[in-house]
Amino acid sequence: MSVRLMVVDDHRLLAEALASALKLRGHRVLAAAAPSGGAAELVINRAPEVCLLGTATPAEPGVFDPVVRIKREKPQIAVVVLGPVPSPRGIASAFAAGASGYVRHDERIEGVERAMVKARAGEAAVAPQLLQQSFTELLNPATEPDDEGARLLQMLTPREVEVLVRVAEGEDTRLIAAGMGIAPSTARTHVQRVLMKLGVGSRLEAAALAARTGLLDRASGTAAAGRGE
């Protein structure tokens, strides 16, 4: 069943990629936007059935203010948050603001689609394992907050960090090889190692994970330092 929706994300490339994938599955995507501000007004004016709202920082104060305004002015719009592996505070904040669901950014398109349909039907759209993880963390809090971006960055070598940055910038194997002064076969091997270490199956997924967790910002700084910029 077709859903009329909007995709709103700070990373335009990711928003457009998700919107295109959902259009191919028969849904009516009103817009794929990445405003730094004004997200709520954009959604309210277009009045979709469902809004997919991306965020890299679900636990940050005020990040769900657009959800509060959307639900206040257009309560019929179901908002599903797309974010990284959330802390209990992140999930709690999303639902407290009025969100109908929370989906991990690395979820398969089928999972996103199921969440959209459930949210439109007025049901809570959140994977049971996310709730379980959140309750586990609440009952057994870590002494230090988990920084997924820093953890993932530690798994990569300096050369792999540079490869990840280039992948996120849209470079293909040939451009990566030319930019790094290595053979295409070597560049291809580096890319595969990056995908394996990050636990993703494609370059787009790697770029999405890097952007959502803050790994891309950290990696860009590390790669620039390595290049002597």
From TrEMBL:
Which keywords does this Swiss-Prot/TrEMBL entry list?
A: DNA-binding, Transcription, Transcription regulation
Q: Which InterPro entries match?
A: CheY-like_superfamily, Sig_transdc_resp-reg_C-effctor, Sig_transdc_resp-reg_receiver, Tscrpt_reg_LuxR_C
Highest taxon above the source species: Bacteria
Q: Which residues form the Response regulatory domain?
A: 4-120
Q: Tell me if Transcription regulation is a UniProt keyword of this record.
A: yes
Q: Which residues form the HTH luxR-type domain?
A: 149-214
Q: Keyword Nucleus, does the record have it? A: no
- Put simply, this protein is called LuxR C-terminal-related transcriptional regulator
